[in-house]
């Protein structure tokens, strides 16, 4: 392996070119008279072209509305001329299923590539050598190196100790002999394991459900608080449940967990407990959004929505005695404090 100025440029997969009818991830580089020139991100940025006729199934009124420089998206491979290096691509022929599968594969490949490149750079070795002896054999054995990396997080030796390579040496009689040795040095192996664990140790997912809850009975606010406590009591150490008031009568239930399915199950139980408690006092609970995993963007949008509602609430005088609040059955709930949990 190289000892100085390692080459850190390399495609993600063993094949130098994609297959026809395969969806690949591209970035638009330039728009010309006939079409758009793009880089194939998974194949070390080799060039491809999307003819304008392959942008859309419909009549094109504005090219800029369909494609623009810098955009990253999946497209379909139409033709590959390996001798001339020409790759023709289509945007209009890629289906929703193709897009989803391509994005999922690319996100996994991009993470694997980032880890491999970092190890090659810090250990001063060529990235392609690391792929030849480690990355691509793992792709062949596990279907995708990402799946192998997931196993390495907890059981690195099972995966990495099976990787070998052949080296040629001069034997005792001067004849060249072939020896089978580990695919990488202990230093490279340790660096790879360290980086995989740092980048791939599971992070907690946030699971959220949106509900509407009302109670028009006397002491309705107390009954709602009791139902909220029942919901939070349905959580456990692995999946603690929190319920927040957005604005009467809308609430959100959340939990954080490493297991998405477990988080969804716990929130479903919390909603059931909450429903039983409020219905006992002739109240009503409606699930507006079922439990699902949410992103940081979803959390940000919710926070912005809550902030706007609080601001609107502050701008309206006499909210405490308004007929609207009375109708929601919320009584004297403090929106500011209830936003962080149950108001005592």
UniProtKB/TrEMBL annotation:
Q: Which SUPFAM superfamilies match?
A: eIF-2-alpha, C-terminal domain, eIF2alpha middle domain-like, Nucleic acid-binding proteins
**From which residue to which does any coiled coil extend?**
none
**Entry-linked InterPro entries:** NA-bd_OB-fold (IPR012340), S1_domain (IPR003029), S1_IF2_alpha (IPR044126), TIF2_asu_C (IPR024055), TIF2_asu_middle_sf (IPR024054), TIF_2_asu (IPR011488)
Location of the S1 motif domain: 21-92
* Keywords assigned: Initiation factor, Phosphoprotein, Protein biosynthesis
- Give yes or no: UniProt keyword ATP-binding: no
Cellular component terms per the entry's GO annotation: eukaryotic 48S preinitiation complex; eukaryotic translation initiation factor 2 complex
Biased amino acid composition, Acidic residues = 314-335
Gene Ontology MF terms: ribosome binding; RNA binding; translation initiation factor activity
The keyword Phosphoprotein appears for this protein: yes
Query: Which domain of life does this protein belong to?
Result: Eukaryota
Looking up SMART domains in the UniProt record yields: S1
Recorded hits in CDD domains, A to Z, give: S1_IF2_alpha
Note down the stretches annotated as region Disordered: 309-344
Task: Kindly name one Pfam family recorded for this protein.
Answer: S1
Give TM regions: none
UniProt family annotation: Belongs to the eIF-2-alpha family.
Q: What PANTHER family does this protein map onto?
A: EUKARYOTIC TRANSLATION INITIATION FACTOR 2 SUBUNIT 1
Supply the name of the protein: Eukaryotic translation initiation factor 2 subunit alpha homolog
Give the organism, scientific name. Answer: Cucurbita moschata (Winter crookneck squash)
Whichever gene encodes this chain, its name is LOC111447090
């Amino acid at each position: 392996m190289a000892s100085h100025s390692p080459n850190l440029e390399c495609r993600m997969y063993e094949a130098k070119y994609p297959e026809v009818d395969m969806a690949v991830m591209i970035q638009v580089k330039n728009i010309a008279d006939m079409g758009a020139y793009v880089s194939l991100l998974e194949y070390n940025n080799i060039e491809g072209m999307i003819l304008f006729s392959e942008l859309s199934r419909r009549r094109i009124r504005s090219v800029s509305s369909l494609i623009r420089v810098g955009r990253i998206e999946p497209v379909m491979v139409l033709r590959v001329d390996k001798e001339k290096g020409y790759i023709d691509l289509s945007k209009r022929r890629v289906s929703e299923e193709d897009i989803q599968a391509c994005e999922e594969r690319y996100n996994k490949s991009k993470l694997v590539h980032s880890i491999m490149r970092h190890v090659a750079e810090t250990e001063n070795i060529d990235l392609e050598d690391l792929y030849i002896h480690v990355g691509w054999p793992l792709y062949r054995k596990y279907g995708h190196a990402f799946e192998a990396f997931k196993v390495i997080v907890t059981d690195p030796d099972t995966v990495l100790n099976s990787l070998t390579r052949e080296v040629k040496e001069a034997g005792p009689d001067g004849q060249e002999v072939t020896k089978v040795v580990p695919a990488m040095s202990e230093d490279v192996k340790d660096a790879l394991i360290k980086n995989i664990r740092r980048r791939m140790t599971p992070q907690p997912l946030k699971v959220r459900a949106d509900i509407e809850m009302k109670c028009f009975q006397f002491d309705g606010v107390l009954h709602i608080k009791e139902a909220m406590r029942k919901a939070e009591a349905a959580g456990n150490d692995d999946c603690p449940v929190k319920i927040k008031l957005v604005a009467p009568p809308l609430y959100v239930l959340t939990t954080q967990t490493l297991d998405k399915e477990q988080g969804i199950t716990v929130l479903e139980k919390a909603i059931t407990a909450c429903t039983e408690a409020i219905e006992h006092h002739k109240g009503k609970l409606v699930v507006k959004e079922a439990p699902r995993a949410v992103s940081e963007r979803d959390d940000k949008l919710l926070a912005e929505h809550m902030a706007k509602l609080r601001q609107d609430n502050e701008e309206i005088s006499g909210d405490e005695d308004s007929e609207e609040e009375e109708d929601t059955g919320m009584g004297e709930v403090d929106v500011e404090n209830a936003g962080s949990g149950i108001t005592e």
